[in-house]
Specification:
Layout lengths: L3 E5 L5 H14 L1 H4 L6 H8 L8 E6 L2 E9 L10 H8 L1 H16 L8 E9 L8 H12 L4 E7 L3 H9 L3 E6 L2 H5 L5 E7 L2
Parallel strand pairs: 4-5
Antiparallel strand pairs: 1-2, 2-3, 3-4, 5-7, 6-7
Length: 196
């Protein structure tokens, strides 16, 4: 793809942040639809919780064509905020969601100082199967300062599993939990790639 650039979301305009939130919700809607089937509510929930300095987007003609969110052992790319959850879903459901999503999305997923974790990677439908995911992963592997990179992928997401394996990621283990089941998430592979 020509005329593309990868930029940190904290360097871009509010419209890019909104496009990124919409892409996040649309790409992972099957995981989030247990919360609500209203995509606009999910966008309102996730937009203020995104840590913009940990999210990178591939821009094509000034539109978000893909995103990668990469965290480390100190911070995650999505930090659930109880106040936001309550404002979007009310006091009871909001507090429950803040707790549940906080356990899944906000607690660091890796322990090592030099370990990175791909929280999310997504491509806009019109750019799928055009190398966007590979470009974003290559950027994270080369452009961010990690010795190893981990990611989770749904076992039944065969195109993603194939891409990751092709790029040198290997399955470390399988992940299942009661919180994942409550959120409608099936078992996932935890994959890893040594970078240095």
């Amino acid at each position: 793809m020509e005329n593309v650039e990868i930029r940190c979301l904290n360097q871009l305009e509010a419209r890019h942040v909104q496009q990124t939130a919409a892409l996040l919700v649309d790409s992972f809607f099957s995981m989030f639809k247990g919360i609500t089937k209203e995509r606009e509510l999910l966008q309102r929930l996730f937009t203020p919780c995104m840590q913009l300095d940990l999210i990178y987007v591939l821009l094509k003609e000034d539109r978000v064509a893909g995103l990668i969110a990469v965290s480390d052992s100190r911070r995650r790319a999505i930090v659930m905020n109880e106040e936001t959850c309550v404002s979007v879903f009310g006091p009871i459901k909001g507090k429950i969601l803040a707790w549940q999503l906080g356990k899944m999305l906000s607690i660091p997923a890796v322990k090592g100082e030099r370990s990175g974790y791909v929280d999310f990677i997504a491509t806009s439908p019109e750019y799928r199967r055009k190398g966007v995911g590979g470009q974003l992963l290559t950027f994270a592997e080369a452009g961010l300062d990690f010795d190893e990179l981990y990611l989770d992928v749904l076992m039944d997401n065969l195109p993603a599993v194939s891409l990751y394996e092709k790029m040198g990621y290997r399955t470390e283990t399988m992940k299942r939990s009661i919180l994942m089941r409550l959120a409608g998430i099936k078992a996932m592979y935890i994959m890893k790639k040594k970078l240095r």
